[in-house]
Amino acid sequence: MSVTLASAESTPFEIAQAETPADTHETPADAHAAQPAGEVHTETGVAHGGEHASGVFPPFDQTTFASQLLWLAITFGLFYLLMSKVVIPRIGGILETRHDRIAQDLDEASRLKAEADAAIASYEQELAAARAKGNAIASTARDEAKAKADAERAKIEASLQDKIAGAETRIAEIKAKALADVGTIAEETTAAVVEQLIGAKATKAEIASAVKSAAGE
Amino acid sequence: MSNDPTHQFLVNKIVPIEIGGIDFSFTNASLFMVATVAAGIGFLYFTTGQRGLVPSRMQSVSEMSYEFIASMLREGAGSHGMKFFPFVFSLFMFVLTANMLGMVPYFFTVTSQIIVTFALAMLVIGTVVVYGFYKHGFGFLKLFVPSGVPGALLPLVVSIEVISFLSRPISLSIRLFANMLAGHITLKVFAGFVTSLSALGAVGVAGAILPLLMTVALTGLEFLVSFLQAYVFAVLTCMYLNDAVHPGGH
């Protein structure tokens, strides 16, 4: 009995200690109503009150909502701020720089290609000019050579013609002289033949007329 | 640690703060929000520190996530939607980082709290509504009136459009929340099978092999879900922003 009394006496003190942090109003009444088993009852009551906060499914515990909302607002706000002020400009800048660099390199490449094309074109042009010049030189040289050869040939032909003409005149002279000599030779021969045959000398005039008449027939 | 699979979602106060009778304590949820900010920003900031013209591996991860969201937003909301890029990129990175941090054992999953996902969803819808009315005035309401619908059907179609618009924040928040919650509970339950079965002796250890394999497989799946839910959240955000940028232009 004394044990129960002691426990019953100590109960209000314990309740006061236990209940001050919690804000339940029913437990003191409960404790008064059931004094003999007060200690046990109060403790279950306190335990129950403590469990009440976590008794609901934790994600649906509305007592945490205000705190979660506030801290979400703070953290997400900070996250957004750091993102938009620091991270995104930085990554965007990196990508921009790379993009520009690639575009620049492509421009440079196309410029170099254009230069190379121009160099090839001018090379081709120069090659064509050189070829034309070479052709011109060759053809003039050929023409000159041909003209020189023609002139030489004409000169040689002319001199040959001269020589032929000279030779022909000489031949004609010689022929005429020879023909003129034929009469006298015939007269002399005739005189000699006559002298031998008849032993008399024929006159010059007779012989000449005889030769003439013989030549005339 | 208790075997209760919902224990991991308990919000515990670390620094009790109370303003005007409302509890604004710094809790483990707040701690992991801060950790999410630090990890997300830290990764993007330090991997791009070199500003390499030819990116390193980590830098190209950051650049890929940037261009991933940029192209998603451009496709979803057009070039006019690009002014929301910091917002969408922040949302994606925040959700992704929070999901991924939640995969670390004993870490708190910020996105497994309905209030957090609902707040993010309301932020999206609020942005859509505010920007829509600011930019187009009452023309924003054309969103609810699809063109080319016969007059008789119009009241029905408009009411369907309004209901679907109103259900957006709910579906957006519950999709993310439920996926993260269910995944973590499933993981915890199967991992719990392993410990409780292996306590039963040799037969139990043999029987624990199957749930162990399931736990390993589910961990892989949960990583996929973590990324996928962040992606889905960002894609839907882009679609909803498109309504704010081009109302009536479906």
TrEMBL record, chain A:
Alphabetic keyword roster: ATP synthesis, Cell membrane, CF(0), Coiled coil, Hydrogen ion transport, Ion transport, Membrane, Plasmid, Transmembrane, Transmembrane helix, Transport
Main subcellular location of this protein, as a coarse class: membrane
Organism name: Shinella sedimenti
Subunit structure: F-type ATPases have 2 components, F(1) - the catalytic core - and F(0) - the membrane proton channel. F(1) has five subunits: alpha(3), beta(3), gamma(1), delta(1), epsilon(1). F(0) has three main subunits: a(1), b(2) and c(10-14). The alpha and beta chains form an alternating ring which encloses part of the gamma chain. F(1) is attached to F(0) by a central stalk formed by the gamma and epsilon chains, while a peripheral stalk is formed by the delta and b chains.
Subcellular location: Cell inner membrane; Cell membrane
Signal peptide: none
Highest taxon, organism lineage: Bacteria
Name assigned to this protein: ATP synthase subunit b
NCBIfam families on file: PRK09174.1
UniProtKB/TrEMBL annotation, chain B:
Transmembrane segment boundaries: 29-48, 84-108, 114-134, 143-166, 197-217, 223-241
Membrane protein topology class: Multi-pass membrane protein
Sorted UniProt keywords: ATP synthesis, Cell membrane, CF(0), Hydrogen ion transport, Ion transport, Membrane, Plasmid, Transmembrane, Transmembrane helix, Transport
Compartments where found: Cell membrane; Membrane
Highest rank taxon of the organism: Bacteria
The UniProt record lists the keyword Nuclease: no
NCBIfam families: ATP_synt_6_or_A, PRK05815.2-4
Family: Belongs to the ATPase A chain family.
Protein name: ATP synthase subunit a
Gene designation per UniProt: atpB
